[in-house]
Amino acid sequence: MALSGVEKNGRELRIHENADELSSNLAEYIADLSEASIKERGVFALALSGGSLINLMRKLCEAPYNKTVDWAKWYIFWADERMVSKSHSDSNYKLTKDGLLSKVPIVHSHVISINDSATAEQAAEDYEFVIRQLVRTRVISVSEINDCPKFDLILLGMGPDGHVASLFPNHSVLGEKEQWVTFITNSPKPPPERITFTLPVINSASNVAIVVTGGNKADAVHLAIDDVGPDCEVLPARMVQPGNGKLVWFLDVEAASKLEDAKFSE
Ligand SMILES: O=C1O[C@H](COP(=O)(O)O)[C@@H](O)[C@H](O)[C@H]1O
């Protein structure tokens, strides 16, 4: 039982009864986009976040997807990373390795992780350089509306404060227009040093999904989606509006509980 395919202010909402149902629906969505992208371009360029998202992707590692997905054609990126070693429990890479990469046969050289021995500034620069090379070789396509990379899918989580990737409310990097990847050294959520995709890159993707569960995020979901006045226009999650792509919110009923008009039905 789920409320699926509801359009609200240019966003598709998929509301699920519980995290298990959300995980199944998310796995099907990712597998379908992977199939379409591989058919069209020969590869699937997927950018991930950390946090609760990885556990919610768990059904993708199970039957039938572990056998049917063409893992050899996948390229993995991160929409943000914390500047800690790859073996640190705060590392988005480690989270993904433990929850996904160790369970499915993704090619090691297709995993584009962030340099954890550089400064945040250098790591952001290196990562953008690699992405530019992969745009040149068409592993990642190019947006028709600007020269940004056009990822096949960017998967984002959202914090209770409305942050996505490492784009936090009121932070100056929200206004970054030139760079594809930037860095911060003052994250309000630890660890303080992070690198992150900028909004132009997120909003150039073919598909973006924001995956959110739990009642502690219901206020932020309401502010990000409902018509709530000009102050909320600057909430990072609300600023995710792909120009030429499709945006889907995957929610459970708790996260959706403060949305206006979202009725849960069979
Ligand atoms: O710090 C971060 O937080 C967000 C949200 O995490 P969640 O555990 O509340 O889902 C995450 O999407 C981002 O990648 C991460 O660096």
UniProtKB/TrEMBL annotation:
The pathway it acts in is: Carbohydrate degradation; pentose phosphate pathway
The first-level EC class reads hydrolase
Quote the catalytic activity from the record: 6-phospho-D-glucono-1,5-lactone + H2O = 6-phospho-D-gluconate + H(+)
Sorted alphabetically, which CDD domains does this protein's record hold? Answer: 6PGL
Q: Which InterPro entries match?
A: 6-phosphogluconolactonase_DevB (IPR005900), 6PGL (IPR039104), Glc/Gal-6P_isomerase (IPR006148), NagB/RpiA_transferase-like (IPR037171)
The source's domain of life comes to Eukaryota
Enzyme Commission number(s) from the entry: 3.1.1.31
- Gene3D superfamilies recorded: 3.40.50.1360
Q: Where is the Glucosamine/galactosamine-6-phosphate isomerase domain?
A: 18-249
PANTHER family referenced in this protein's UniProt entry, alphabetically: 6-PHOSPHOGLUCONOLACTONASE (PTHR11054), 6-PHOSPHOGLUCONOLACTONASE 1-RELATED (PTHR11054:SF17)
Similarity section: Belongs to the glucosamine/galactosamine-6-phosphate isomerase family. 6-phosphogluconolactonase subfamily.
Protein name, please? Probable 6-phosphogluconolactonase
